Amino acid sequence: MATRIRLRRMGSNKRPFYRVVVADQRSPRDGRFIEIIGKYHPLSDPSLIEIDEQRAMYWLRVGAQPSNQVRNLMAKIGIWDKFVAERPAAAIAPKPERLAKEKVSKKQQARAAEAEAAPAEAGAAPAEAPAPPEAAAEPVEAAEPPEAAATEEPAVEAAEETSEG
């Protein structure tokens, strides 16, 4: 039987207090339990945390797994630190970070495969890639207007003729 040390909610609406209980993992949150080992009143100032250290250590030794909140409460009053000192393997190792995978739809994968296969089949240079967004943002003034190019050429030719003669 897998046992858990967890909180059982009690109290009225918007005025909760909790009992720290040892329960079968399959039983509901406020359902059947094996033993009450403490209490937690979060609304009192400062919060009241009472856990029977001997019973908590007993249940941890026989394999009961505390919930995250109960583990935090035990760490605040020192029970969890004593247990970890007794059994270093009980310390929780941080989970490795998952690498974010780029999500690509099947249609995009098929298009990418076609684009890679098309230049190889044709034997020609790959198709031009679209211009980067920075190039599109360049001002139009950088390019010479066609009229200016046409007017400058005769002036250059006229200048060459006068220098020769």
Largest sheet: 5 strands, mixed
Strand content: 15-25%
Which bin fits the share of residues in helices? 40-55%
Determine the oligomeric state from the structure.
Answer: single chain
Question: Spatial order of the strands in the main sheet?
Answer: 4-3-2-1-5
User: How do the SSEs run, as a string of H and E?
Assistant: EEEEHEHHHHH
List the uncertain runs. none
* CATH architecture tag of the domain at 3-89: 2-Layer Sandwich
Outline: elongated
Distance between the termini: 111 Å
CATH class of the domain at 3-89: Alpha Beta
Describe the fold and architecture.
This protein has 165 residues and is α+β, with helices and mostly antiparallel strands. It has a domain at 3-89: S16 Ribosomal Protein, Chain: A (2-Layer Sandwich). The protein is 41% helix and 20% strand. The protein has six helices and five strands. The chain has helices spanning 53-61, 68-77, 79-86, 106-122, 133-136, 146-164; strands at residues 3-12, 15-24, 35-41, 48-51, 65-66. It has a five-stranded mixed sheet. Strand 1 and strand 2 form a beta hairpin. It is elongated, with a radius of gyration of 38 Å.
